[in-house]
Amino acid sequence: MLRIRNLASGSSGNSTLLWTDETAILVDAGLSALQIRRRVEASGLEIEDIEAILISHEHIDHIRGIERLSKRYGIRVYANEGTWLGIRKDVENRGMLKDEMVFGDIRITGFPVPHDANDPVGFQVMHDGNKAVVVTDVGHPTKYLKNALEESSVIIIESNHDVDLLKNGPYPYYLKQRILGPEGHLSNEDCGKVLGEVINEDTVAVMLAHLSEHNNKPELAERTVKEYAGEGARIMLTGRGAAPEIRL
Ligand SMILES: [Zn+2]
Ligand SMILES: [Zn+2]
To answer: Measured in angstroms, how far is the CA atom of residue 27 from the centroid of ligand 2?
Structure first.
């Protein structure tokens, strides 16, 4: 069984824990090392159980804890070359993220996403014939994204903002343009559209992640996504603190 738990989501920090009886990994570590350790322990694991941290891109909300996690607990951190170039942290155990990686009985493949970072990726996680996808920070839907999401049993995906709330909200113009741009963040509507193309009765769970605090509301994200993905879609939301565990 593959277990998945989003430990944190949003601009204050992102991290997702995935584990089996054999191994445990984190996708991103955007909280402090202490917060990550606490949330890993609250999931029934020890921080030393974490075999690897895989980094999607170098923005601070995805890497905040990696320096201390690598130094203090010896956890190896994997990022691709472009992402490492953007990481200004003294990480001790550096690994090079490859297109395909195997940790115990989990196999991981990365895929490119459009976002304003050096070489950002999303992750497909395969275990026992099942697939889960963890993908945040996506400027717009691409064929790579759709391919990755197809036949995925569990999807954790960004549903960042409502376009009207963002346009009429408090952010300065340049920031609005950045978020709305092709290498910014995924709107509720775009998220719903791509989910509408890929989910079906075999989809176990869809978790909406990286919701903007200022430019979104959880119920609005869920409602908008369901407009496109169907009322029957098994939508979950990340909230404050760790989300419920998903089993696959
Ligand atoms: Zn980012
Ligand atoms: Zn982010």
So the answer is: 12
